[in-house]
Amino acid sequence: MKALFIGGTGTISMGIVRRLAEDPQWELYLLNRGNRMSEVPEAVKQIIADINDEEDVKKKLDGMTFDVVSDFIAFDVSSVERDYRLFEGRTNQYIFISSASAYNKPAASYVITEGTTLANPYWEYSRNKIACEEFLLRKYRENGFPVTIVRPSHTYDERHIPLGVHGNKGFYQVIKRMQEGKPVIIQGDGSSLWALTFNRDFAIGFTGLMGNRHAIGEAFQITGDEILTWDQIYRTIADALSVELKAYHVSSEFLADVGEKYGYDFRGQLLGDKAVSVVFDNTKLKRIVPQMTTNIPFNEGVRRVLDHVLSHSEEYEEDPDFDKFCDKVISALEDAKKKVLE
């Protein structure tokens, strides 16, 4: 069977690529600009192209058909419209990577199923994913376009620590704050529930949907079964670092407001996603992919990540601006507490 991935070298997709590279049933092609070719397994074939150059992509795919096409870098309707033009009649299944952040905010229930309403007034990213889903399902209903929708939640790999609050340069500065004995900001009171999925576990669910006729015209959320509070997540990271966690809890609403002044989109990332408790009911996925389960719990996954991060610190950039932001927020809130108590 032949599959084409657009992108294919990101956090979610690389776990799938590595799994398929070891599966003799699949012949896998990646279409991207070739920026991370050294990390792609030898068995995977590369098509070097910019997916936004539609005419060039048409030429390079001339005469090719696929059992599965999946676009890992489609974030707006114009992208899936382009994919529809390119792959209608050329694939037996088109898998769209949506997002679990598309589910209704504020949440009507903390238990999420594929039938939960899609609506997110806080985050444009999520609204764009919803619009993409609506376009593709319309094409399925009207023209039989063989779409499958996948909704990941918080998926991580061996290069990225999953956090609730971090700066524009990623998680690394938060890890440094922990190592330096500084307080780290956690949204809310740290008790809201969250699901984390290592990308190799995600790949089990995803590959189980590939070529599966029961998946056509359907949406599936793919997450691990492990549910943790945000305090537990940060405490697990601190334990792996062998440091004391100095948690400083700040309301998500306050972070959303103050973050805008410093260029941080906490409104979308917190109020539109991570501030809300979620427990995903994965019954629908497990019905057709029964092998889907959590094989790499967070306490193991985070140690794998830190092994890489601490031995490859040159790959990560410090973020002094976010460091100052954290100190300012904590100092301002401590001053406010003192005034209230006086």
Task: Draw up the topology in text.
Layout: E1 2-6, H1 11-21, E2 27-32, E3 45-48, H2 54-60, E4 68-71, H3 77-87, E5 94-97, E6 111-112, H4 124-143, E7 147-152, E8 154-156, H5 172-179, E9 184-187, E10 193-198, H6 199-209, E11 219-222, E12 227-229, H7 230-241, E13 247-250, H8 252-261, H9 266-274, E14 279-280, H10 283-288, H11 298-311, H12 320-341
Parallel strand pairs: 1-2, 1-4, 2-3, 4-5, 5-7, 6-14, 7-11, 8-10, 9-13
Antiparallel strand pairs: 10-12
Helix pairs in contact: 1-6, 3-4, 7-11, 8-9
What is the structure about, briefly put?
The chain is of the alpha/beta class. It is built from 12 helices and 14 strands. 41% of the residues lie in helices and 17% in strands.
